[in-house]
């Protein structure tokens, strides 16, 4: 009997999958790029939920920087019910599985708006093909573990590569700039492996603290916000403790007031213009809780960092595995994979996947 893949297997697979997808970067996003440059769009509107929403936030600062346009990210329900259409918006819907009911509703809404319904997914044979005018495969394959990891980072890479390709074809960047960034994305796979190795050691070093998490905050800014969103989601859905993501400055305006020594707080520094302020917030938080950890540079014994940092906008490609590995290892060790039995009834009432989806 074939062994089932685990969350850990997919985390470890990620660097090779990113390298595989970046071999032919222009071919990877050709369909989406061609649709974008065929019209004079002013803004990009990404419609996504869950980890796809978080991946989009990870890629957003890079996309805006390289393309020079605003990137808006909406949940499918916000898009379907409240979006005010602008004809100069380039819209596409993302669902890794291709079976999310809210994403399908968003595709229907696009058709109502007389907009070409573009769906980005890992499964081109999913329900997306019935509702989208164009189905775009972002080339991760089928991830059989619900707590997705390789699909998150390859989606970030896909969105970044799309922005790069579009920018090059619109003559917004030079070939030299393009090739430099492609090489940095390749380099990020080595840093991903480095962070994996360091994360295993970090988890063992801080095992008592990480295995007794009760309430979790994850704070950052800029490109780190997407990391924070995904970290909070992964810890919450696997370890099954309350976990919240905050912009670092917003964290100081209320959320910090409930801090106590029992809280676990992760502070992410992408080494950009906010770096000194992020470090200051870390030091302040550590006064209250010893369970405060710093991601991004070497401050003290509670830090994890890469020896080689790339462009700050690329940090999601290699700092996410830290949180993915914590989520996996602590959940595995504490046997927290099982959900409360009443969740079966919950899912019957509030459905989030179409009937063809196999959990």
Largest sheet: 5 strands, parallel
The low-confidence runs, each spanning 5 or more residues with pLDDT under 50, are: none
**Spatial gap, N to C terminus:** 20 Å
**Order of helices and strands, N to C?**
HHHEHEHEHEHEHHHEHEHEHEEHH
What Rg do the Cα atoms give? 20 Å
CATH topology of the largest domain: Rossmann fold
Share of residues in strands: 5-15%
Strand order of the largest sheet: 2-1-3-4-5
The number of helical segments is 15
Task: State mean pLDDT (0 to 100 scale).
Answer: 95
Looking at the overall shape, the CATH architecture of the largest domain is 3-Layer(aba) Sandwich
What's the level 1 CATH class of the largest domain? Alpha Beta
Q: Which percent bin holds the helix content?
A: 40-55%
Structural class: alpha/beta
What would you note in describing this structure?
The chain has 15 helices and ten strands. With 359 residues, the protein is α/β, with parallel strands linked by helices. The strands form two sheets. A five-stranded parallel beta sheet has the order 2-1-3-4-5, with helices on both faces. Helix 1 runs antiparallel to helix 9, helix 4 runs antiparallel to helix 11 and helix 11 packs parallel to helix 14 (316-334). 51% of the residues lie in helices and 13% in strands.
């Amino acid at each position: 009997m074939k062994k089932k893949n685990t969350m850990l297997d997919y985390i470890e697979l990620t660097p090779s999958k990113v390298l595989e997808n970046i071999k032919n970067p222009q071919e990877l996003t050709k369909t989406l790029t061609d649709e974008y440059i065929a019209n004079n769009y002013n803004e990009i509107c990404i419609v996504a939920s869950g980890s796809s929403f978080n991946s989009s936030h990870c890629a957003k600062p890079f996309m805006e920087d390289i393309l020079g346009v605003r990137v808006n990210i909406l949940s499918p329900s916000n898009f379907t019910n409240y979006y005010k259409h602008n004809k100069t918006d380039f819209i596409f819907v993302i669902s890794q599985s291709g079976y999310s009911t809210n994403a399908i509703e968003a595709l229907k809404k696009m058709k109502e708006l007389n907009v070409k319904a573009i769906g980005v997914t890992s499964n081109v044979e999913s329900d997306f093909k019935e509702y989208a005018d164009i189905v775009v495969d972002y080339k991760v394959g089928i991830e059989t573990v619900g707590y997705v990891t390789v699909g998150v980072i390859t989606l970030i890479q896909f969105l970044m590569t799309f922005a790069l390709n579009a920018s090059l074809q619109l003559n917004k960047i030079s070939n030299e700039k393009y090739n430099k960034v492609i090489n940095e994305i390749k380099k990020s796979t080595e840093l991903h492996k480095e962070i994996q190795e360091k994360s295993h050691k970090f988890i063992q070093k801080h095992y008592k603290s990480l295995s007794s998490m009760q309430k979790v905050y994850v704070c950052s800014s800029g490109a780190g916000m997407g990391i924070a969103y995904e970290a909070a989601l992964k810890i919450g859905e696997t370890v099954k403790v309350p976990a919240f993501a905050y912009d670092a400055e917003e964290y100081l305006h209320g959320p910090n007031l409930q801090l106590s020594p029992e809280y676990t707080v992760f502070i992410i520094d992408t080494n950009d213009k906010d770096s000194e302020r992020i470090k200051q917030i870390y030091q302040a938080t550590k006064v209250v809780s010893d369970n405060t950890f710093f991601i991004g540079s070497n401050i003290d014994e509670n830090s994890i960092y890469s020896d080689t940092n790339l462009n700050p906008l690329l940090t999601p490609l290699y700092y996410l595995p830290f949180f993915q590995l914590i989520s996996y290892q602590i959940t595995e060790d504490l046997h927290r994979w099982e959900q409360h039995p009443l969740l079966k009834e919950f899912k019957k009432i509030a459905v989030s996947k179409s009937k063809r989806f196999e959990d």
